[in-house]
Write a structure and sequence with these properties.
Distance between the termini: 32 Å
Oligomer: single chain
Order of helices and strands: EHEEEHH
CATH topology: Glutaredoxin
CATH class: Alpha Beta
Shape: globular
Length: 91
């Protein structure tokens, strides 16, 4: 099982790290589990599982929560302030 989080580093680094941290905590003992953080395009935040896109910020217009990627990530449930995207991006 491999999660890939591809994101705009300038805009969403902390959100990606929080999500990866929650995935690692939840799946720490699952054999073959991997989570990859990959730099992406300006404003991008996409989450894929085994190559299949689970979530795209471009399509939804907001950042994902654990529930958006089909996972109950208690550790990564972002606060409302962190998931609100007013379109402002630093890049």
């Amino acid at each position: 099982m491999e999660y890939t989080i591809k994101f705009c580093v300038s805009c969403y680094l902390q959100h990606a790290v929080n999500m990866a941290d929650g995935l690692l905590e939840k799946h720490a003992h699952d054999e073959g589990f991997t989570v990859r953080l990959m730099p992406g395009a300006s404003g991008q935040f996409d989450v894929a599982l085994d190559g299949k896109t689970l979530y795209s910020k471009q399509e939804s217009g907001r950042l994902p929560t654990g529930k958006d990627i089909g996972s109950e990530l208690d550790a990564t449930e972002m606060t409302e302030a962190e998931t609100d995207d007013d379109g402002a991006c630093c890049c």
